[in-house]
Design brief:
Chain lengths: ~325, ~300
């Protein structure tokens, strides 16, 4: 086992070095943008994965935390000139506080009713953001004036954004890794697999659901700050969007919920697929998302645990020794 | 005074349309136990169907309604058989994301074929109103409201007085016991899904003289019908009807009293409150709705 682990860590180490070296080889702005979006989506979906994949709380309102992060740092920057690096702290606090406020009542709901409640919260926040024009400029959105510099987290080239996104993703992978290996992770999985049994065994389920919510919403806020600084424009319709929330969820589901690398696999497959389809069928508006929907139906119906667990299971069945990072994954929700 | 009555009446009439859409969703949710996120897209397809029957063949929406209902019934059968049936015994996650995928696919199918343009029919009676004192009542909305009442009554009679209706209720209550009594559960699922889809088809036909159709029109209504179903109580047709009226009224009153931009936020807040304090709904027989999809 130890030998395998080291083989795997060597592989990951090489991958990491390749990731750091990539900007030296990739000079094309179009491709660089796609790579950055892959990393961004992997990070955002990874933050959702902690709440939904590990703790089993299937939220379709994750864009709330992402959007709150983006709005908090942006408003601080535009209205008061606070550096986004400091804005991150405010964004974290804001997002986690709202996460706690939503989680406290919503965690009493189970299954699809929790999902519906998160949808409703997401809609309420979108309406408020569109309505509160004095603060958020309403549906018009906020343009962030371009002032390049390290302090303002705005850059002329793509490379700095790439490294910030990569750092963000690595942080989320590390946190997920530690959760996966910790007692907390086991508690999360116990809650996901069978809430009643977990409670009987003495796990304080509400407290642990709340932990997953706080970690998940905080990390989502982080990606929100990055998004605002990268795109330099935010509007309620884009950042508090239900479709966006389901896209975030989709990456993890396709890749493999409740696994460390599932969200990355999902983002690596879906983001370029989306970009390719969008440029290939640009004349036929809607075809890309039509195919996207069909793919979603097929993959979820036939591979309910996602690609990563399905592949690793196949590999295992053939007797090849490959260590996996799935802990309890492959059985998501069977208790229900 | 006249203005207040006007607001209340238009709220109630809009509520009738919400009720009609929600009754279809409610039947599917109560019997098949699946939250159909694509329900709004069924409505959208019915509206397009109605629109094209009008613009191509000149069929009045009220005349073509029968055809639309029939087509949506068959469409419902098809979707249930091909997409929903294979996932009935899977997890809540799979159910949610399969219907969500269906919703995305249908929405973009419409966008691909018919573009994002807003389309509407132009009939003679479209803007017709009846004046009662100072209050003006729009005739197409009144028709939709009356049809909603008829459908609610019809569904009530069907579910309570006919053998098939009783079988549907039996499956909704306890599918294993129903199967042991010799009811073909799969066939009941097919029927319930198809009827639910036919009702939303009728709603689409009645909505087209009042509202525009565009690819994402369903999203607007599907969230409202979730609110209505949870508010009214799952599986209860009367609940869905009353829930629709309540949401229509809340929307109309909030639009005047609070602010037009926040009226949707108000009913989503009501939705959250109902989910938290009475998840089985205002009019349901009791516990149960919070367990949907978990069994």
């Amino acid at each position: 086992m130890r030998g395998l682990l080291s083989k795997k860590s060597i592989f990951l180490f090489i991958l990491l070095i390749a990731a750091f070296a990539l900007p030296n080889f990739l000079k094309n702005k179009f491709y660089m943008n796609i790579v950055i979006m892959v990393i961004f989506y992997a990070a955002l979906s990874g933050s959702w994965n902690i709440l939904a994949g590990y703790a089993g709380q299937l939220s379709l309102g994750h864009s709330i935390f992402f959007g709150l992060g983006a709005y908090t740092s942006t408003l601080l920057l535009v209205k008061m000139g606070v550096s986004p690096w400091l804005g991150i702290i405010a964004a974290l606090i804001m997002s986690m506080a709202v996460g706690a406020l939503i989680g406290y009542p919503a965690f009493r709901l189970k299954g699809p009713f929790f999902t519906l409640a998160t949808l409703a919260f997401s809609e309420v926040i979108r309406y408020i953001a569109s309505f509160w024009k004095e603060l958020t400029n309403g549906a018009m959105g906020i343009n962030i004036p371009f002032k390049p510099g390290l302090a303002t987290m705005m850059f002329r080239t793509k490379e700095p954004y790439y490294f910030i996104a990569l750092g963000m993703l690595l942080l989320i992978i590390l946190i997920t890794f530690f959760i996966d290996r910790s007692k907390m992770g086991s508690y999360f999985i116990a809650i996901r697999e069978n809430e009643d049994a977990a409670e009987v065994l003495g796990i304080p389920i509400t407290r642990y659901k709340m932990y997953s919510m706080l970690i998940s919403s905080g990390l989502a806020a982080l990606t929100g700050v990055f998004y605002a600084q990268y795109i330099l424009f935010i509007e309620p319709e884009a950042v508090f969007n239900i479709n966006f929330s389901s896209q975030i969820a989709l990456m993890s589901i396709i890749g493999g919920m409740g696994t460390i690398f599932g969200p990355i696999v999902g983002a690596v497959l879906l983001v370029p697929l989306n970009e390719i389809m969008r440029s290939a069928f640009s004349s036929l508006n809607g075809l890309n998302f039509f195919i996207y929907g069909i793919v979603l139906i097929i993959v979820v119906s036939w591979m309910p645990n996602g690609i990563l667990p399905t592949i690793t299971n196949q590999v295992k069945k053939r007797g090849l020794k490959v260590s996996t990072d799935r802990k309890g994954a492959g059985k998501i929700d069977t208790a229900n | 005074m006249g203005e207040i009555i006007q607001v209340l009446i238009s709220g109630i009439l809009v509520g009738g349309i919400y009720a009609l859409i929600s009754m279809g969703l409610n039947l599917i949710l109560g019997v098949v136990r699946i939250i159909n996120f694509a329900h709004g897209e069924f409505l959208m397809l019915a509206m397009y169907l109605s629109f094209f029957l009008y613009s191509v063949w000149g069929l009045d929406p009220y005349v073509s309604a029968l055809l639309v209902v029939l087509i949506l019934f068959v469409f419902g059968l098809f979707i249930q058989r091909i997409i929903i049936q294979p996932i009935l015994n899977t997890s809540a996650t799979v159910k949610i994301f399969v219907t969500l995928g269906l919703s995305i696919a249908l929405q973009n199918f419409a966008l691909m074929l018919w573009r994002a343009d807003f389309r509407s029919v132009h009939t003679a009676y479209q803007t017709a109103v009846i004046n009662v004192g100072t209050v003006a009542v729009s005739i197409p909305r009144l028709i939709a409201f009356i049809v909603a009442i008829i459908v609610a009554l019809g569904m009530y009679l069907f579910l309570n007085k006919t053998l098939v209706g009783k079988a549907i209720r039996a499956v909704a209550m306890e599918k294993r016991a129903a199967a042991l009594m010799g009811i073909n559960v799969k066939r009941i699922y097919l029927l319930a899904f198809a009827i639910g889809s036919a009702i939303v088809g009728l709603a689409g036909a009645l909505l087209i003289p009042i509202y525009y159709v565009f690819p994402t029109v369903g999203t607007l209504f599907v969230l409202i019908s979730f609110v209505v179903v949870v508010l009214g109580g799952m599986g209860s047709m009367l609940g869905a009807f009353l829930g629709g009226i309540i949401i229509g009224l809340v929307e109309a009153i909030a639009g005047v009293v609070i602010a037009p931009g926040l009226k949707e936020a108000v009913y989503f807040i009501i939705f959250i409150l109902v989910l938290l304090f009475r998840p089985s709904g205002l009019f349901s027989l009791g516990k149960g709705s919070e367990e949907v999809g978990l069994k």
